[in-house]
């Protein structure tokens, strides 16, 4: 999600429609989908065309498939019948019972209680709502009827299991959340029971009412509700809100001006919801609920009992991080960090917990050296929790200071931070942009090597900068040469003396090509690929670019904007790497983080795709293309010869495995 790269895409034919959410079968690492209600499809990552994957037509319409972490997926049919996926695949046309012919399923969820799968689903008929619980071990189906609420209906459901009791929460249209308790210890099928409800939460505060559309349980004292917050005489605003059910208070809210789809998902302490046309991911952390926190909230609507770390999805003013389990941090509209302990003497915060909050204030006006010293002290705490979250809050503050103050730039600390911590581009998206502006080659090199999610636009910007800067300038900069020091011979590069070289058994000079002789005398010696066309510093930086992950679809449009002379220089370097990597039988370059043969080949193909017409027209590129063509042809012929004896080599391997050789032996093997 963070680097906006599609990892896989599959589509059904025109006229077909996927009718329930696709799930992953964790047991087999396969995807399971249903289209047109009855057609089951199963495939893996490497599959490309859905028409060619496993297909089964079922005898009844499917409502939803539920995937469990350590068990077979559960298939719920619209008639209330349930099957595990493996049982269903044994006989796809098996008859499925219909328990709810006149009822419509509104919601369902699956759980693992111990080792037993349990499926719960809600249905509606003529304004009445029913809950079904299916126990798989005993194959028992329990049915309950929800106690009616006058002039109000359930809009959304969620549930969790604790101590053999299902807690069902329902969000009603009267802006309230009700709770139903369902024991799991019942044995045998009993008559329909009526579940009595209890009011858990009223979604109103200070004259404002939240018209919720979906919600999620965060812990025993907190729920998150997505909906429209409406105040008398004001226009409604879509918001994500978090409520304390223990003290009936609104803990925090985030306005979503671009609108949402009304759906909210919560997995692993992260919220997922659509905001406008993008998927928004927000990390949250709930504190232990306390009366002091609730009272503080009532006194000051800005103080939050639940904290967020936003991954570059909303505005900078909403970037708030939880520093300790008993500490609350909030961000005022003017983007000032305020600790609750300063506003209320009721909530006591440990002294050492104030360091990070105070540091955010110090970053605004302290010197670079002073900030670096305090940052090192903060991150040196061995017991400090939420290190990633703290860094995610500190780095944006540093970057904002760098943007507004040209003199301020804690380069040493930023380099050490990236080297020691597992960071990503999405956690500090403006860092590389500032490094580009400062022409900080060392920092850019480390980011390219360590960040797994750099956007292609930023990768291209780094490539263009590296190619445009002269080798003389780079010699005065601090660049890590570990990836090039083992294979670049600077001395022979400067001498210009050509030594005969044989790659994998073939000398490209001996290959005949009518078009090659035209350029032999005119082409400079470095076009042969034997001498590095760039200095070691630039080579190390280009290696970092080759190491960065990318999607061809997104990178190719940017590469087309690369100036022709820079494209030729880059292709010369790639040609040099290609020749170097082919000298050894294992086709790998020595050194740390050196480019692999696959990376070299992929980038050469990308560059030629982006600039082929320009390369053909440029006189200085003709010799390069000719030399590259000869070398590739030599490689193809060499591997072609290897393919001819592949069968004999496999037979030798088989014979060798069959014989038990002693410590010393002489064998004569004859190839026919």
TrEMBL record:
Q: Which GO terms describe its biological process?
A: maturation of SSU-rRNA
Instruction: Print the keywords alphabetically.
Output: Activator, Nucleus, rRNA processing, Transcription, Transcription regulation
Coiled-coil portions: none
Q: Does the keyword Nucleus apply?
A: yes
**Nucleolar protein 11 N-terminal domain: which residues?**
1-285
State a GO cellular component annotated for this protein. Answer: nucleolus
Query: Where's the Nucleolar protein 11 C-terminal domain?
Result: 358-671
- Where is the protein found, in the record's own terms? Nucleus, Nucleolus
User: Any keyword Transcription?
Assistant: yes
Highest taxon of source: Eukaryota
Please name the InterPro entries in this protein's record.
NOL11, Nol11_C, NOL11_N
Report the GO molecular function annotations.
RNA binding
Q: Please identify the protein, giving its name as recorded.
A: NOL11 protein
- Origin species, per record, is Crypturellus undulatus
At the highest ranks, the source species' classification is: Eukaryota, Metazoa, Chordata, Craniata, Vertebrata
The record's gene field reads: Nol11
């Amino acid at each position: 999600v963070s680097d906006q790269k599609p990892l896989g895409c599959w589509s059904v034919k025109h006229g077909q429609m996927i009718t329930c959410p696709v799930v992953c079968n964790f047991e087999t690492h396969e995807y399971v989908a249903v289209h047109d209600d009855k057609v089951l499809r199963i495939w893996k990552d490497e599959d490309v065309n859905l028409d060619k994957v496993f297909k089964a037509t079922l005898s009844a319409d499917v409502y939803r498939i539920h995937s469990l972490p350590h068990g077979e997926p559960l298939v719920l049919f619209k008639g209330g019948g349930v099957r595990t996926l493996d049982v269903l695949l044994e006989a796809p046309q098996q008859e499925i019972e219909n328990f709810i012919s006149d009822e419509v399923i509104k919601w369902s969820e699956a759980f693992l209680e111990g080792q037993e799968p349990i499926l719960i689903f809600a249905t509606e008929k003529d304004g009445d709502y029913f809950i079904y619980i299916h126990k798989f071990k005993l194959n028992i189906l329990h049915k309950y009827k929800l106690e009616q609420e006058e002039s109000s209906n359930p809009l959304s459901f969620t549930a969790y299991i604790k101590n053999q009791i299902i807690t069902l929460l329902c969000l009603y249209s009267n802006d309230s959340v009700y709770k139903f308790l369902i024991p799991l210890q019942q044995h045998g099928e009993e008559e329909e029971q009526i579940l009595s409800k209890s009011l858990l939460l009223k979604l109103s505060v200070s004259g404002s009412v939240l018209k919720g559309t979906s919600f999620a349980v965060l812990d025993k004292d907190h729920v998150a509700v997505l909906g429209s917050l409406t105040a008398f005489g004001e226009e409604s605003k879509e918001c994500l809100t978090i409520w304390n059910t223990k003290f009936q208070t609104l803990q925090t809210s985030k306005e979503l001006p671009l609108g949402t789809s009304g759906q909210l998902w919560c997995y692993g302490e992260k919220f997922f919801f659509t905001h406008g046309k993008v998927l928004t991911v927000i990390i949250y952390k709930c504190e232990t609920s306390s009366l002091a926190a609730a009272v503080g909230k009532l006194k000051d609507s800005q103080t939050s009992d639940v904290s967020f770390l936003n991954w570059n999805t909303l505005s900078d003013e909403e970037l708030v991080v939880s520093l300790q389990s008993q500490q609350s941090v909030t961000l005022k509209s003017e983007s000032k960090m305020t600790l609750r302990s300063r506003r209320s003497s009721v909530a006591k915060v440990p002294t050492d917990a104030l360091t990070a909050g105070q540091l955010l204030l110090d970053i605004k006006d302290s010197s670079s050296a002073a900030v670096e010293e305090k940052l090192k002290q903060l991150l040196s705490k061995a017991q400090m929790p939420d290190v990633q979250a703290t860094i995610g809050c500190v780095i944006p503050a540093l970057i904002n200071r760098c943007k507004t103050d040209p003199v301020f730039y804690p380069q040493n600390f930023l380099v050490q931070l990236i080297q020691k911590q597992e960071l990503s581009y999405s956690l500090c998206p403006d860092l590389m942009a500032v490094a580009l502006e400062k022409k900080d080659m060392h920092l850019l090199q480390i980011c390219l090597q360590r960040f797994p999610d750099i956007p292609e636009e930023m990768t291209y910007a780094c490539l263009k900068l590296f190619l445009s800067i002269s080798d003389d300038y780079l010699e005065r900069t601090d660049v890590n040469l570990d990836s090039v020091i083992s294979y670049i011979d600077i001395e022979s590069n400067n001498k210009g003396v050509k030594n005969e070289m044989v790659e994998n058994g073939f000398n490209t000079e001996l290959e005949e090509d009518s078009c090659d002789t035209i350029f032999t005398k005119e082409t400079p010696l470095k076009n042969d690929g034997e001498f590095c066309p760039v200095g070691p510093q630039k080579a190390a930086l280009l290696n970092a670019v080759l190491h960065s992950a990318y999607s061809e679809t997104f990178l190719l449009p940017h590469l087309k904007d690369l100036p022709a002379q820079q494209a030729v220089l880059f292709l010369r370097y790639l040609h040099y790497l290609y020749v170097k990597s082919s000298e050894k039988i294992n086709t790998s370059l020595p050194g740390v983080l050196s480019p692999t043969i696959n990376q070299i080949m992929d980038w050469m193909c990308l560059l030629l795709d982006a600039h082929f017409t320009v390369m053909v027209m440029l006189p200085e590129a003709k010799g390069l293309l000719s030399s590259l063509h000869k070398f590739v042809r030599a490689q193809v012929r060499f591997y072609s010869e290897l393919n001819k004896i592949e069968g004999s080599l496999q037979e030798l391997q088989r014979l060798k495995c069959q014989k038990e050789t002693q410590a010393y032996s002489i064998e004569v093997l004859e190839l026919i």
